[in-house]
Amino acid sequence: MMKPVLLLAALCLAAVPAAAQDKAPQQDPGTTNRSGVEPAATEAKASKATRKFMKRAASGNTLEVETSRLALEKSRQQDIKAFAQTMIDDHTKVGNQMKETLQAAGLPAPPDEMTEKHQDTLNTLKEAGGDRFDTEYVAVQIKAHEEAVALFSDYGKAGDNQPLKQFAETTLPSLKHHQKMAEELKSKITTGSATQ
Fold it and tell me: Do 138 and 153 form a contact (C-beta atoms < 8 A)?
């Protein structure tokens, strides 16, 4: 008489975990995780154009800082060392401002690594020595700032994220000034008037 009851009880107990698994909450793409943030919410806020701007701006900024650190180590020209220090100081600030702007806008932080193109530029510059280094460093800075001015100018005019658009607009004058400084440095190197 007891055996059927025990068998029934065992079957009921075995069914409980299976039922609990069926009722376990499944993480839908639109639901929140433990932190209360929707998994793809921050990425959904960033359009393709905004993500492209973030990636290229962060990568270019890192390139300008890292090549300038190289210049402090490798260059013998005081003018170049002074310019390099200015680039490190100013672009470190720009990088921090960008991160703060993205955080305030609820956007993800930009990737730490540079684009392949920028990484190749840095690697090539590492191999340069002597006067060749100075010439190549200044050429890299001119090109990087030309790209940055175009990138920030375009996003400042047509960007679709207001905080990031404002960041681009307010940063642009500084980038233009850096570009002019780099071009003036190039002319000093060309005429041989850079200070040792």
Answer: no
How many CA atoms, within 13 angstroms, populate the side-chain half-sphere of residue 176? 9
Residue ranges of alpha helices (H) inside 40-106 are: 41-45, 48-74, 78-104
| Unique residue bearing structure tokens 């680039």 | 87
Q: Minimal CA–CA distance to 53: which of 174, 183, 166, 143?
A: 166
Contacts (Cβ under 8 Å, ≥6 apart) of 78: 194, 195, 196
156-180 pLDDT per residue, tens: 999 999 999 999 999 999 999 999 9
Provide φ and ψ at 78, rounded to 5°: -65, -35
Average pLDDT over residues 46-58: 91
Instruction: Work out the number of other CB atoms within 10 angstroms of the CB of residue 141.
Output: 26
Contact 36, 97 (CB under 8 A): no
| Amino acid occupying residue 182 | A
Q: What is the distance of C-alpha 144 from the center of its chain?
A: 15
Residue that is written with structure tokens 């994220």 in the block: 161
Residue 24, pLDDT score: 41
Q: Within the chain, how many helices (H) and strands (E) appear?
A: 7, 0
Q: Judge whether 163 and 105 are in contact, CB under 8 Å.
A: yes
* 8 A C-beta contact, residue 137 and residue 67: yes
